[in-house]
Amino acid sequence: MPQSLSLQQLPFSQACDNNKQPILTLLAKWFANRLHILEIGSGTGQHSVYFAKNLAHLRWQPSDQQHYLPTLQTRLNLQASPNLQPAITLDVTQPWPQFTPHLDAIFSANTLHIMSQTMVEAFFGGIGSVLTHSGSLVIYGPFNYQGQFTSDSNRQFNLLLQQNNPHSGIRDIEWIGQLALQQGLTLQEDIAMPANNRMLHFIK
C-alpha cells in the first residue's frame, strides 16, 4: 500500500469512531497496571492509534490477518505514537507468534461474531497459550444471553451477518464463558455499552 495515501483514503469504520471513547474509559481502568497489550483483529487501525495515544504507558501491539495489514500499517505510520508497534500477522487458526516481552493483556473488538465457531474456539485456545498468569482479556461486541438477542437491532444484524457468511453470528455469552474457563480465564465484569454492545473483562 503506497505510503502516499492520506487518512481520508484509508478504510474507515464509523462504529470504531463512535465507540472509541466509551471503550477507552474502561480500558483506562482495567489496563492501568498493564504494560504489553495485543489487539486481535485491529482492522482499520482506528482503535489502535486512539488507544495507544491515550494509554501512553502501554506497549500496544496491533494484529490482523495478512490481507488487512497494508492499509492497517499505513494508518499506523500516519498516526504513529512511540508506544504503537508495527502490525503483525495473526490468524487465530494458525500457530500463534511467541511474544517477547510476554503479554499481560489482550483486547479485541467486534471480532467474535465475524468468526466461525471453530475460529472462536481457536481464538481462546491461542489466548490461553500467550497470556500471562493474572493477565487481562477484554472483548467488546454484541452477545446473546440464554440464547436470546438483547435487541431487535442485534437480531437484524445477526441476519445480515449470516447472509454474508452462514458460519458467523452473535455468540451466546454462556458459551464464551465456557471457552474462557477452559483456558483459566474468569469473567470479572460484563458492562453494557452503547448500541447494544458489551465489554467483557476476564482475568487469567
Automatic annotation (TrEMBL):
Pfam families, A to Z: DUF938
InterPro entries, sorted: DUF938, SAM-dependent_MTases_sf
Protein name: DUF938 domain-containing protein
